[in-house]
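Folding problem:
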Amino acid sequence: MKTKEMVFAALFAALIGVLGMIPPIPLGFIPVPITAQTLGVMLAGSFLGKKTGSLSLILFIVLVALGLPLLSGGRGGFSALVGPSAGYILSWPVAAFCIGYATEKVWSNVKTWKIIIINLVFGVILVSLIGAPVMALITHTSIWAGLVGATAFLPGDCIKAVIAAIIALQLKAVSPIEEK
């Protein structure tokens, strides 16, 4: 791994931690709050690519597990990774990898709408399909109820997908993703 990739991975882990400083929006009907951190997940995948993007999220999760209060609301420690948000948080490296993989495939002929669709499929739908069932299992509710509750995240996550795509394309010149 190149030094530049390690620096980018560390910077994005820090960026996602900074996004965690934005206060979460709690919902009364689901124990997982709305946060800005999924914006960082989508941005990591679409700007850094599959390898560095997923590495940045793995680093972030390791730092959280070690006790750093990087999750929204100042949460950290292993207990944060086994609570209702666990499935969402643990899906982030997978989402960043998938977003990065798809982005790398279209990078030579990239358009904003392509990155938006990639972010919607892997940064919104995939994260919900992993996070909601895990949340339902942890809270002893039905998986269907978890998936229905997760629809509350869709409007904000769609906005974050568009923002991440626009930022990634504006920074394309300095992205570590290589043209093929």
The mean pLDDT is 95.
